[in-house]
C-alpha cells in the first residue's frame, strides 16, 4: 500500500468498535455544524434505541480557517460519540473522505455525508435498512435536486454522461452520501491510487449494491466549497482515474490530423506539377492553426496522465492528520 505510515491509522480495537461510523468532511462549516449536529443526533440516538450497536460521528475538519474547530470542540462536550480528526491543511473533499474512512473504527460499516445538511440525516435509517437486507453498498441518489443551481445540475449531468460514455459505472445522481460495509471500506483503503474519486471507484469494485432515493435539500448555511475550478479538478481526476480513453482519443485526433495534412500536401504537389499556383494563404494559415491546436490538445491530454503518474510516483500523502480527538481522550 502506498500511503505512508504517517497517515496510517492505528488498528481499531474490536472491543471499542462501534457498529457504525458516520464520516463527515467539513471545511469552514462553523455556520452549519450546530444545525447539522442537532438534526443528526436524534436520528442516531433513535437508531441506538432500536438496537444499533454503538456509533461514532467522525467529523474530518479539512484544515478549516473559520471557527469550525471551536464549534466542534463545543459540540463534543455533550456529545461523547462525536470525534474530530483535524487535517493539517485543506486537502479537498475526496482526501478528507479518505482520511475519515482510514480512521473510522466501525466494525459494521461507514456512512459518508456532507456537513451542510444537503444530505438529510433522516435518510440514514433507510440506508442502514437497505444494508441490513444484504447490500454492501447503499447509494443515496438525488431524486429531486431542484434546489441546486442550474449550472450545478447541468455540469453534473454532463459529468455523469461523460463518465458513462468512458465506461464508468457510477450510478446516476449518486454523490458521496452512501453506506459502505466494512469489507468495502477495507478494500477501498487498499487501493494505491492517490487521487481516487470514491464515487467512481466504489461502483467499479463490484460489491452488491442498491440505491435509496431522497430529495436534495438546500445548503443550510454558508457557501459552497465547490467552485467551478474544484468541480473541474474532480472531473479530471474522475476521468483520468477511470479511463484511458482520452489518451486513445488523442491518438485518433493525431491520426486524423496527419491524414488531412497528407491529403493537402498531395493537393499542393499536384497543383505544383500542373503548373498551378496554390491559391491564397488562408488555407495555409488554417492548416497551421488546425494542426497546432490538435497538437496542443493531444499534448494536454498526455500531460494530464503524465502529471498523475508523477504524483503517484512521488507517493506523497494526500492529507496529513494533525490531531484526532480519540487520542486526546474525552
Ligand atoms: N469539503 C471539504 N473540503 C473541501 C471542500 C469541501 O471537506 O476542500 C466538504 C464540505 O465542508 C462539505 C462537503 O465537502 O461537507 C461538500 O462540499 P459542498 O457542500 O461545499 O459542495 P456542494 O454540495 O456545493 O457540491
Ligand atoms: Mg453542499
UniProtKB/TrEMBL annotation:
This is Glycosyltransferase family 2 protein. Coiled coil: none annotated. It is found in: Membrane. It comes from the Bacteria. It comes from Kineococcus endophyticus. The keyword Glycosyltransferase applies. Belongs to the glycosyltransferase 2 family. One of its GO terms (molecular function) is glycosyltransferase activity. It is a multi-pass membrane protein.
Amino acid at each position: 500500500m502506498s500511503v505512508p505510515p504517517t497517515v496510517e491509522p492505528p488498528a481499531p480495537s474490536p472491543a471499542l468498535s462501534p457498529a457504525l461510523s458516520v464520516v463527515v468532511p467539513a471545511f469552514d462549516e462553523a455556520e452549519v455544524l450546530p444545525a447539522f449536529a442537532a438534526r443528526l443526533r436524534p436520528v442516531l440516538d433513535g437508531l441506538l434505541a432500536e438496537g444499533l450497536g454503538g456509533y461514532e460521528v467522525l467529523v474530518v475538519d479539512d484544515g478549516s480557517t473559520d471557527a469550525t474547530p471551536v464549534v466542534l470542540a463545543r459540540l463534543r462536550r455533550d456529545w461523547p460519540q462525536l470525534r474530530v480528526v483535524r487535517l493539517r491543511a485543506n486537502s479537498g473533499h475526496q482526501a478528507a473522505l479518505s482520511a475519515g474512512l482510514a480512521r473510522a473504527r466501525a466494525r459494521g460499516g461507514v456512512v459518508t455525508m456532507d456537513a451542510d445538511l444537503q444530505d438529510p440525516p433522516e435518510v440514514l435509517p433507510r440506508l442502514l435498512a437497505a444494508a441490513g437486507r444484504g447490500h454492501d453498498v447503499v447509494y443515496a441518489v438525488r431524486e429531486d435536486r431542484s434546489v441546486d443551481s442550474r449550472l450545478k445540475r447541468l455540469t453534473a449531468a454532463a459529468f455523469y454522461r461523460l463518465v458513462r460514455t468512458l465506461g464508468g459505472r457510477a450510478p446516476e445522481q449518486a454523490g458521496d452520501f452512501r453506506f459502505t460495509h466494512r469489507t468495502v471500506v477495507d478494500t477501498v483503503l487498499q487501493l494505491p491510487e492517490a487521487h481516487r474519486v470514491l464515487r467512481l471507484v466504489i461502483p467499479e469494485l463490484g460489491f452488491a449494491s442498491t440505491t435509496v432515493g431522497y430529495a436534495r435539500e438546500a445548503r443550510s448555511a454558508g457557501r459552497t466549497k465547490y467552485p467551478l475550478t474544484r468541480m473541474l479538478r474532480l472531473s479530471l481526476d474522475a476521468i483520468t482515474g477511470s479511463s484511458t480513453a482520452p489518451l486513445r482519443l488523442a491518438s485518433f485526433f493525431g491520426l486524423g490530423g496527419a491524414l488531412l495534412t497528407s491529403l493537402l500536401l498531395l493537393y499542393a504537389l499536384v497543383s505544383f506539377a500542373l503548373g498551378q499556383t496554390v491559391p491564397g494563404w488562408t488555407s495555409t494559415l488554417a492548416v497551421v492553426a488546425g494542426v497546432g491546436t490538435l497538437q496542443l490538445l493531444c499534448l494536454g491530454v498526455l500531460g494530464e496522465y503524465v502529471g498523475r503518474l508523477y504524483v503517484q510516483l512521488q507517493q506523497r500523502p494526500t492529507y496529513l492528520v494533525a490531531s484526532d480527538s480519540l487520542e486526546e481522550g474525552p
